[in-house]
Design brief:
12-stranded parallel sheet; 9% helix; disordered N terminus; 5 helices; mainly beta
Amino acid sequence: MRKSNIKSKSYLKKLKLIKFVFSFSIFLGSFLFYTHSAHAATYYIDYSGGSDSNSGLSKSTPWKHQPYMKGFAGTYTHQAGDIFIFKGGVTWAWSVADPIFPWNIQTGGSTGNPDQYTVDKTWYAGSSWTPPIFDGCQTAEGLNVCGLNGAATLGANSWLLGDGGNTVSNIVINGLRFQNIGNPSSTQYATGTAVDFSGSGSSIEVENCILTPHSVQAFSYSNYYNRQNAGSIYIHDNQISYAGRGVIYGYTGYTVNDVRVYNNKWEGPGLTLAGDLYSTGGFHNDGLMVGCPAGCSGTAPSVTNILFHNNLFNGSWEYCTAQYYSNGYTSNTSIYNNVFSIENNSSNGTPMQNFVEFGSNDWGKINVYNNTFSSDALVGYDTGVNKGFCIAYATNTVNPLTTNVENNIFSGVAIGSLIASRTGNNVTIDHNLYNITTLGGYGELDYIGSNQYKSLSSTCAAGYDCNSLGGNNYSSSYPGFISLPNGNVGSGNWNLLNTSPAIKAGTNLSSTFTTDLNNNPRPTTGAWDIGAYEFTPASTPAPTPTSVPVYRFWSDKYNHHFYTASLDEKNYVISHYPDAVWHYEGIGFNAYSTQESGTVPVYRFWSSKYNGHFYTASQSEKDYVSSHYPSNVWNYEGITFYAYPAQEANTTPVYRFWSNQYNGHFYTSSQSEKDYILSHYPSNVWSYEGIAWWVPNN
């Protein structure tokens, strides 16, 4: 029988030379780089199992606190690009004994090299991954959380994570959960912010977080302190609930440029902030509030180039002004691929006023494309106030404004587009689908200036909606959503049925964006579907690939292993070779007998000189061996199975060792076996070479 996994000594010498040259090149490049830049590090933090006296540089020696948290007692020197990894399933909770919050970042990264506050989903407490939690232990409702029982708390106007007014830039907040920062002393003034940046920094990114503050603000950015121009504020892929709003503010004379808010799921404040109303002197609630707060003046915008897209608003939205609200002094805003909806409302809650609203003093361009506005769960509810889309800027006659409202669905609302006339206003409204209600005496498709248009013929005669569909005779089956919201959170599905008139009824806007809310592609040519979703015909899902066993043998005679995915070959070896030559050890791991999506071939060589096999998933390594060794040394036998070249979901690494003593490789998917070899054998017997490939979990 053939002996497994051997390379010639001359081949090894060449590989070592290559490794030396490659390593020296990396060292030289690193040396040149680090003469200009100090080396950033990765730190691990575990509140339940860490200690600030540790180094923090490994999962086995984590800190308890991050260095900028109150109570940190360790030693830390910042370098741009430092990464802080928080252990999943662990809670950092405020207490009198350890008042962690407010947690104020004091320094940031550099351009292209941000500081990261993030997670490693392979490092967690418990049986499965959950995010690390940062808990202020107080809510606006006065709920008893964290066992405080009326003890001292953070109080009003506090926050969990922020800059504390410091100008810090190049920050990424990823994968964390922030909760319970409301003011417990008052339900009317529900102050508190989960993530707060107010020091005029740039390149701030909050992504993949869960924000449930039970307070007025999920996140807040402004350039109020240290006032200066700033930009690149990105809020995306977050889950937001029990929050009055998120805010992004600029101030007179200081511009915040390049704001992107996308792929967020907003479930609204509901009655969490009951009584916290603008009309009673408290804070009015929104989804996103952007622009310039009171006191702004002049003709320059404060927030510019805003992209607001692919957000889903559902749930309960009592006590709100709008799900997108500009309070003025913004310029160039694009709002597209969003679902703006109300799914439920309590009988004693004050309803949301508008889905989208622009106040005075906005200019440049306002593009509202391919959104779905749905009040189908509350058709006609408080009609006239609960409008679909509102732009009100009659007081601004300083700068021209271009407004484009195209490819939108308005369903269950009393008014589609409400646009006040003003000097220099250029308005395009077309290719929309209207499912408007006349309840309450309204039923306007468009309300422009003092003109109320209740039919498509009247809007077209005025120069609008000549290619639009529908009218003001509301029907629950029109425009063809998969499921209407029924009053329960999460009950609505605004994807299109195959019978929807919205399909192929829109204009092509591919010069502006190219996907829908599901990130499915929209056509590059031809008509688009109206609304946030492009219709995708149901397709038969690809079958889940079935893996096969890779059988493992050990030879006392040759001191090597042999691996095969062939059942016939396995049976042949068992029946033709005594156990002392090839002993069957069972299944080594699983792989694929055919190439599946994302997999690569694992190649097999045989050496009659060394009586062994060599396996590699590297095309370049396979080509090198084929071109540099005669067939009697290494003879290519073909593909033995398929595996993944990098980590995928539900995969396991296969580790690779090389033995100078035995002139062969060893492969194992067992972490414990790998660790045993490393701890029991010197490197000249078994030298660890890293991960060879990844295989599906058994």
